[in-house]
Amino acid sequence: MQQTLQTRVLKKTRLSERVVGLTLGLQNGDAFPVWEPGAHIELELAVSQTEPLYRQYSLCGQQANTREWQIAVLKEEAGRGGSAYIHEVLQEGDALAVSIPKNHFPFAANTKCFFVAGGIGITPIVPMVQAAAAAGLDWHLLYLARNAADFIFLQELQEVDGARITTHASNQDGLFDLQGALQALDAQTVVYSCGPQPLLAALENYQQEQADIGWQLVLERFSVETDPAMLQGKGFTVTLQKSGKSIAVAEDETILAALKREGIRVKCSCQNGTCGTCETVVISGLPEHRDFVLSPEERQLNETMMICVSRALSAELVLDL
Ligand code: FES
Fold it and tell me: Residue ranges of the FAD-binding FR-type domain (predicted)?
């Protein structure tokens, strides 16, 4: 976590059976830094005595409220304990260290916006909807959930403009016809989507089929199914600039795994290239980017890389570690 802010949990509320909302304020009472729709913060969770867990959550409150930040946390039953800690241990009044906002899902306020949110993927979309409405843009929100009880922030969104919102809960409405819903897209439309991997994959496939129409797609992923083969490749050497230590990364291990093998602790979270926690500055060498965080422009610059999944095209990488 590059720059840490010391916050306190001002409010903890239940948003649905599986989601709690946290309202955070700075401990010193100052105003928070500004943030843009799509931004997330990283929470440092004292889950164990030895090593904190880092977890990322989208800011989903009002941008104009500089004294309070809001996040919503889904309890991941198969997770590694971060969301369970927030649900079961963290209480109002507790201290919580968080990062300054980062944004890998920027909203460009395009004239025509089509938002597609799946489940908890609504969180980065809420401020985008508010920004689109405030700017007088032509927008529509498609909000999908498995169960009607899983919808959160629905009342706030409907107060923005309920006529521009379509909801679909598959437990009561059946299978959703995504292609049918996207048929009216044109070249001026940008689709912003956050949700489970099958939803994002369906959008990507449909966009490719409709390449002649030319609508754009901007995605925020919170998980991917990683094929172990995708983490493998040619072996190479990583040199750590600060210690001068060189470590061989084998064909079947990641840089992160090689560092851990050598007893070097590096901050990480998702370990599948989606969260950005392990982003590391590249001093020299050519990375082979395999993450879902960096934009095409950032990949070309080769200034940073996600060491949990990305590898090297050169024989050696020198990293700022
Ligand atoms: S740990 Fe999440 S991108 Fe590497």
Answer: 2-108
